[in-house]
Write a structure and sequence with these properties.
Length: 638
């Protein structure tokens, strides 16, 4: 059986799983499911990347061991993938003993053959990105990836001879189809390879949470060497001896990820594989970012959307559909709750839901659910039949290029055409006129359209597609076959519940806002209840400033929120505050308030809020905290 090996990144268990992570994994799942339906033996790998200084620090802050710190977060992401019906084959953790041993062996082998050597590292290090940079690679003195401050780093280190592989890596990127989309190739070649590819430091000595270099235990293997190796250690590779899974599945058919880590997968990773004398992966796809409030959705920016909340409210398939449909290949896409709700209502409830419901109802009403070909075919069936016959080829072509959005567009084109077909053929009129044979054929055409669309939807919205098959009285297909008009000779259909309930968008937006607020409140409560004593240094990290309210207005469609324009010294900024029940906008203007000025920005109702104003609350009462006598805006509160 033909094999297909597919991976997503192994994620950092850094505290909060968000919708951005879900995009890659759901995308991977759609590819994995499609390939399985094509009859391939698919190995779909995902997991967690658990080592490094960042995790070590977080765990220390939380007062637990790094392993205890990551265990809880790993369990949470595994439950997220279960909730979203992600059908991975293996979940690898870089703390798995077999992985750790294999990374040690890989490192040793590269050292013994001269591809790794010991020297001294002098340069810059970005802790959040776990990346070393040379002075010339910095952007305005900051990390070129995330824009944050970097630290001086000088230590004894092992180096990987990346420079030796530069010509072969360049050739791989420019002369093959290794990296998609195309635009990322130029970026890699111009910005990194042609700018001069230097050897990279691949060990650290300033922390201990990682894979120790076996022959020099003070050194910890650089987290990216550790992490990238997961793609082969998961298959049982341990440095030399071939494993059965390696022989069966390697090289990978597809490494899927967002654009910011393409650099590691298209330069360091192939060079490592060249050094290990292993075949190179067939494809790296770097997709765009899910944005929120204009920025990449990311934990460190604090602008995240909680997938657990959305899944609980709208179901896995609605979320899967939104992610797969909303993001064009390789480009960024902005998340808004409005867009999610609109997609659910228009595509899933109206277009798909109505087609299935109307067809199912008419099956029962006119033929007791028993549908077969009618005697009266008509030229008016031709366009929709032609569309049905073309669909499988179009979806396959899109999925062969890993473009789920295009595949879904085509499937929904057929769904739209089938809905129009009902309006044009007017089955109710045919019934009235007693044109039974024409009516039978029309319904047969419709059931065929539902079957073909339903089967092709399986990789994307598996639960919904299975329900559609149940309604048609068919088993859920395990293969993409018979996807042409006329292949299913007869149906014994059943009535099924509505696939997606119609949502009241206004009400849902309010509910989502409330749920987000509740989560924030729970977090604050949790923190207050268990608040430990803090040092004066801890307190000094919070920057409190007096601010003057210059303008204030209600936030549309949010009964709790006010949008405030504040003057803080010479600066103006926007803050959204949940005080609309206690203060009118008019009352607020001119007031002096106390602002938490260095809080991470948060997007609420599409507005970026930069800070929080302090209030005192007791039961149902709430009052602003204000300076006791007049003092200039911008004054520090200490
Ligand atoms: O980089 N939009 O882990 P990570 C789209 N451990 N995708 C997003 C996203 C967003 N806003 N935010 C995250 C790491 N992702 C390393 C990987 S692999 C050997 C090691 C997805 O937890 C996307 O796939 O920071 C991105 O590449 C990945 O999460 C980064 O996850």
């Amino acid at each position: 059986m033909e094999k297909f090996y597919l991976t997503t990144p192994i994620y950092y268990p850094s505290g909060k799983w968000h919708l951005g992570h879900c995009y890659t994994t759901v995308y991977g799942d759609a590819v994995a499911r499609f390939k399985r339906l094509e009859g391939l033996d698919v190995f779909y790998l995902t997991g967690t990347d658990e080592h490094g200084q960042k995790i070590e620090k977080r765990a220390a802050d939380a007062g637990v061991t790094p392993k205890a710190f990551v265990d809880g977060l790993v369990a949470e992401i595994q439950s997220l993938w279960r909730e979203l019906n992600v059908s991975y084959t293996k979940f690898i953790r870089t703390t798995d003993e077999s992985h750790v041993r294999a990374v040690q062996n890989i490192f040793k082998r590269l050292y013994e053959q001269g591809d790794i050597y010991k020297s001294k590292y002098k340069g810059k290090y970005c802790t959040p990105c776990e990346s070393f940079w040379t002075e010339s690679q910095l952007k305005d003195g900051k990390c070129p990836d995330c824009g944050r401050d970097v630290q001086d780093a000088e230590e004894e280190s092992y180096f990987f001879r990346l420079s030796k592989y530069a010509p072969r890596v360049r050739e791989l990127l420019t002369k093959s189809d290794y990296l998609k989309p195309e635009s990322r190739v130029n970026e890699m070649v111009n910005n990194f390879i042609d700018a001069g590819l230097e050897d990279i430091a691949v060990s650290r000595t300033s922390f201990t949470w990682g894979v120790p270099v076996e022959f020099d235990p003070g050194h910890i293997v650089y987290v990216w060497v550790d992490a990238l190796s997961n793609y082969i250690t998961a298959l049982g590779y341990n440095g030399d001896a071939p494993s059965a899974d390696m022989q069966a599945y390697w090289p990978a058919d597809l490494h899927l990820m967002a654009k910011e880590i393409v650099r590691f997968h298209s330069i360091i990773w192939p060079a490592m594989l060249m050094a290990l004398d292993l075949p190179l992966p067939k494809k790296v796809v770097g997709h765009g970012w899910l944005l929120f409030g204009g920025d990449k959705m990311s934990k460190s920016k604090g602008n995240v959307v909680d997938p657990f909340v959305l899944k609980a409210r709208y179901g896995a398939d609605a979320l899967r559909y939104y992610l797969l449909r909303a993001m064009p290949f390789g480009a960024d896409g902005a998340y808004t709750s409005e867009a999610l709700l609109t997609r659910i209502n228009t595509d899933l409830c109206n277009d798909l839901g109505n087609l299935v419901r109307r067809t199912g109802k008419m099956n029962v009403q006119y033929f007791n659910g028993e549908i077969s070909r009618g005697q009266a075919v008509s030229g008016e069936d031709d366009p929709v039949v032609a569309q049905m016959n073309a669909l499988y080829g179009e979806v396959k072509a899109a999925m062969d290029e890993y473009k789920p959005q295009r595949a879904l567009e085509k499937i929904f084109d057929l769904i739209g055409a089938a809905n129009k077909y009902i309006d044009v053929t007017k089955p109710w009129a045919l019934a009235k006129e007693g044109q039974t044979e024409r009516l039978r054929e029309v319904l047969y055409v419709l059931n065929e359209a539902v079957r073909i669309a339903g089967t092709l939807l399986l990789p994307f919205v598996p639960q919904t597609a299975a329900k559609i098959m149940e309604g048609l009285g068919l088993a859920v297909p395990e293969r993409n076959k018979d996807l042409a008009f006329g292949k299913q000779k007869a149906y014994r259909t059943k009535e099924i519940d509505a696939l997606f309930p119609r949502l009241n968008v206004e009400k849902e937006l309010d509910e989502l806002e409330k749920l987000a607020d509740k989560k924030e409140e729970e977090k604050v409560e949790e923190k207050t209840e268990s608040a430990p004593l803090i040092t004066i240094d801890d307190f000094c990290r919070v920057q409190l400033r007096v601010a003057e309210v210059l303008a204030c207005e209600k936030v549309e469609k949010a009964d709790k929120l006010l949008k405030l324009t504040l003057k803080v010294g010479d600066e103006q900024r926007t803050v959204v505050s949940g005080i609309a029940k206690y203060y009118t906008p008019e009352e607020m203007v001119g007031k002096r308030v106390v602002l938490v000025a260095n809080l991470q920005p948060r997007v609420m109702r599409g507005i970026e809020s930069r800070g929080m104003i302090l209030c005192a609350s007791e039961g149902d009462k709430l009052t602003l905290v204000t300076p006791e006598s007049l003092i200039g805006s911008g004054a520090e509160v200490c």
